[in-house]
TrEMBL record:
Keywords: Aminotransferase, Pyridoxal phosphate, Pyruvate, Transferase
Cofactor: pyridoxal 5'-phosphate
Protein name: 4-aminobutyrate---pyruvate transaminase
Species of the source: Alloyangia pacifica
Superkingdom of the organism of origin: Bacteria
Pfam family, one: Aminotran_3
Record lineage: Bacteria, Pseudomonadati, Pseudomonadota, Alphaproteobacteria, Rhodobacterales
GO molecular function, one term: adenosylmethionine-8-amino-7-oxononanoate transaminase activity
InterPro entries, per the entry: Aminotrans_3, Aminotrans_3_PPA_site, PyrdxlP-dep_Trfase, PyrdxlP-dep_Trfase_major, PyrdxlP-dep_Trfase_small
Family note: Belongs to the class-III pyridoxal-phosphate-dependent aminotransferase family.
GO biological process: biotin biosynthetic process; gamma-aminobutyric acid metabolic process
Coiled-coil segments: none
Amino acid sequence: KIPNSLHASDIAHSMHPYTNMRLHEEQGPMIITRGEGVHVYDSEGKEYIEGLAGLWSVAVGFSQPRLVEAAAKQMAELPYYHTFAHKAHEPSIRLAEKLAEMTPEGMDRVFFTNSGSEANDTVIKMVWFYNNALGRPEKKKFLARNKAYHGITIASGSLTGLPANHKDFDLPAIPVTHLTCPHYWKWAEDGETEAEFTARLLKEAEDTILAEGPETIAGFIGEPVMGAGGVMTPPEGYWPGIRALCDKYDILLVSDEVINGFGRCGTPFGCEKYGFTPDIMVTSKQLTSSYMPLAAIIVNDKVYNTIADHTAKLGTFGHGFTGSGHPVACAVGLENLKIIEEQDLMGNAARLEAKFQEGLRKFADHPLVGEVRGVGLIGGIEMAKDKEKRLSFEPAGKVAPQVVKFCAEEGLILRAVYETVALCPPLIVTEEDIDQILARLGRALDRGWEWVQA
Ligand code: PLP
């Protein structure tokens, strides 16, 4: 058992991300001491199913010995070297090769960063560099969507379309326009069919491009399935329509696969699920199962060749991080992808999709629930006071966190995103684990309903 002083010390000295700091001073931390498979254990010894795979990321589960060994071996051999200015080492070479093999045809060049946010910052700079290389410096703006999550640095946080990430941080700080969130249940007009909704969103995107001037719009970025904004799956036809608009107006399409990538949606990448090929892909999280911080940007030949030609002119690509392609992170990433392949974890997600999604949809008639949505092994349950009118409980943003608290008491860690309870279990889950997740969630929802009525 961890002595209480650890709790006291945390309260006294730590500033936690995404935390109400004053509330934290009152209630203190939940200290996680170890993990095993789909489970983690707190300092009181209580066991939980990690229903969000940490932060949507621990694909292979906790304490996977092969990843520990891969890290230790690389630490002993070459704990660090950089990849600046023609230097290279085997782990980053092998991982880049593996990513080129896994990603769609023609996407063969990989740039490493330490986090998804840094990766999206890098993408913005790459897209700007690309347009400068083509002699069109005015083509700099991005299109993103409301409720998108692309990170929290000044530039990637600008692409993010969530008010909490902008408010009082003086963002956006780069030129970006946020379009309507492609979430049919929430944003469709009364009587609008899904096809009409898609057509309206595509028209909005095209009208925006034309109003701002196609010569000023450089990139469109989106998560195939939106994650941290509340798990929103796109309406039919949306992504092929966006791809066509990007082609028509010479806009680079960026698929942010930080959550979707490596099997989460039942296909290797989210873009494959929704039938489009981007120009640039961004991956992280399940790339190393988050055992080490690492992100990878994969670009197509068109982007690579334009950038590479320009570096030949300028003498360099003046961008990179001390940790770009960190050997230990890359060794862990490579071993992690091997495990995903050998254990067919992407296939596991596809095989368990029906059980997981149908199990979640059984809660659609629960009195707390407005909508259940998801694909593969990612899901969201949105709370609503009135399903038909899509009205939240008042005050908004209170019910889902309360349900998540009840889930934790029932031995299931999930995350509340506004009025949505998000689920994203490790890809190693079994049918029995899914039964447990659904049973615990069901009890938490019932307790939530009693709580709302009290
Ligand atoms: N992009 C997406 C889709 C994400 O979900 C996240 C993080 O949740 C990021 C980017 C940012 O990644 P990081 O937290 O590693 O900076």
